[in-house]
Design brief:
By secondary structure, this protein is an alpha+beta fold. It folds into 4 domains: 114 residues, PAS domain (Beta-Lactamase); 103 residues, PAS domain (Beta-Lactamase, 2-Layer Sandwich), CATH 3.30.450.20; 70 residues; 152 residues, 2-Layer Sandwich (Heat Shock Protein 90). It is built from 14 helices and 18 strands. The strands form 3 sheets. Strands 11, 12, 13, 14, 15, 16, 17 and 18 form an 8-stranded mixed β-sheet that branches. It is elongated and about 130 Å long.
Length: 471
């Protein structure tokens, strides 16, 4: 096969559009790729002016580049991106290389082009998304950031970083690990350990102090995730939220709780001690009143203890985990039986049932059983059972007590607002409510068969099916 024949075949099989144009820009030749890319019969283009097919917004620029290249006295090439009209009337993006290298056998100048429409559109979509992301992140108060997997490159951070961390973005860009100098020295080891865990592919949540200009008085909650590709951590993304106000409120709450509980206990010890002394020699009417004082005082001390449990629950930020509810409920019932030997407390439990909840679910069951015993008109008759549903598991505490007041239920469920007239309900029920709320669950109240049914409903964790058991 002759050399020119081989060259001709290669020209027709190449994926790039190759054309020859004269000095006026008229087609003298177009290869078969012209039809694959643009839909034109190559022969139909011969004699047409190439610039008539270029988008009007780019026509003058493309013509100027072409004329500059072919008018150069030395070998010259140039590359230009522009839109070119296809046979169906649509516009395709081309990247063309112009050259002034020619000879008489070519009869013009060679222009090679490749279709970059997909790349241009993808780049525009990315740019548009980046613009929207930038607009969004400039309006949020959280710090949003992205680092390389080895923490050597800052890929993105929004302006909120400067306000919260007290450091310029430029400084962070110069040295991504420089943000550690904005962290309280006592918290740096914990943060460094978190960085290592992220680089190893483990997500993290942590709280620490930042901003030396504010004496490290700013608390942040950081949540971050590694981005893994082909088994390697390629990026790390996350956000930091200023939780200084929340930490301040928690500290204030803890201080007030300690003071109040301490004062209540000290004062009630004095009251209960004197009540016990008076009861020794009191006549019957007085003894009854003394007993009322003692009973009310003990209830107040018990409320203070439950208040402490609620404070700890709300300030310790416990996380729901998979709990063996059969074991938790069984343990709660056994504890209640020891404290209330005269009560009838039965169970109706499956062989296994697990829920996604706080460990304190056991305390919630104990509280409901204790509450039922306290409010029973006679010997308490209580049954605790577990029922599994598709996505939830329900722990039911059934009693034979008088109806729970609708006003109390309404406050707990949010159907009734707290007011100066009606301002509270049993603090133990609030403990139950918060345990379920923090477990992504809820509490329901029903009246059935002359008794109450209080149900603790939490997300279900799949377990092997088993036969029910009761005692």
């Amino acid at each position: 096969m002759e050399q020119d024949s081989r060259s001709s075949i290669l020209l027709e099989y190449t994926q790039d559009k190759i054309v020859i144009v004269d000095e006026d820009g008229r087609f003298a030749y177009a290869n078969d790729a012209t039809e694959r890319i643009l839909g034109y019969d190559p022969a139909s283009l011969v004699g047409e002016n190439v610039f008539e097919f270029v988008h009007p917004e780019s026509r003058d620029q493309v013509r100027a580049v072409f004329e500059r290249v072919i008018g150069a006295t030395e070998v010259e090439t140039a590359t230009e991106q522009y839109r070119f009209r296809a046979a169906d009337g649509s516009w395709r993006w081309l990247e063309s290389r112009f050259s002034n290298v020619t000879d008489e056998s070519l009869g013009g100048y060679v222009v090679t082009s490749r279709d970059i429409t997909t790349q241009v559109e993808s780049r525009r979509e990315r740019d548009e998304m980046a613009r929207h992301l930038d607009e969004l992140t400039r309006t949020v108060s959280d710090v949003m950031w992205m680092f390389s997997g080895d923490w050597d490159e800052l890929l993105f951070v929004n302006p909120a970083f400067e306000e919260i961390y007290g450091m310029s973005v430029e400084r962070l860009e110069g040295n991504p690990r420089e943000f550690l100098s904005a962290v309280h020295p006592e918290d740096v080891p914990m943060v460094e350990e978190g960085l290592d865990r992220l680089s190893a592919g483990e997500p993290i949540d942590m709280e620490y102090r930042v901003n030396a200009s504010r004496d490290y008085g700013t608390w942040v909650w950081v949540s971050a995730e590694p981005v893994v590709k082909d088994g390697d951590v390629v990026r790390i993304v996350g956000f930091a939220r200023d939780i200084t106000d929340r930490r301040r409120r928690e500290r204030q709450l803890a201080v007030m709780d300690n003071l109040l509980r301490h004062n209540i206990r000290n004062s009630m010890n004095v009251i209960l001690g004197n009540a016990e002394f008076l009861a020794r020699d009191a006549d019957e009417p007085t003894a009854e009143r003394v007993e009322l004082i003692r009973h009310t005082g003990e209830n107040l001390v018990d409320s203070a203890d439950k208040q402490r449990e609620i404070i700890e629950l709300l300030t310790d930020h416990p996380e729901p985990i998979s709990i063996d509810l059969v074991e938790a409920v069984g343990g709660a019932v056994e504890s209640a039986r020891v404290r209330h030997p005269d009560a009838s407390i039965g169970t109706d439990l499956p062989a296994s049932a697990s829920g996604f909840t706080l460990r304190e679910i056991r305390a919630a069951v104990i509280e409901l059983v204790d509450n039922a015993v306290r409010h029973a008109d006679g010997p308490a008759d209580i049954t605790v059972r577990i029922r599994e549903h598709d996505e939830r598991v329900r722990v039911e505490v059934r009693d034979s007590c008088p109806p729970i007041p609708e006003t109390e239920i309404g406050v707990l469920t949010g159907d009734r607002e707290m007011t100066a007239v009606y301002h509270t309900t049993g603090i133990g029920l609030w403990l139950v409510y918060w345990i379920l709320d923090l477990s992504d669950g809820f509490v329901t109240f029903e009246r059935q068969n002359d008794g109450n049914v209080v149900s603790l409903v939490v997300p279900r964790v799949e377990t092997d099916a088993g036969a029910e058991r009761s005692d």
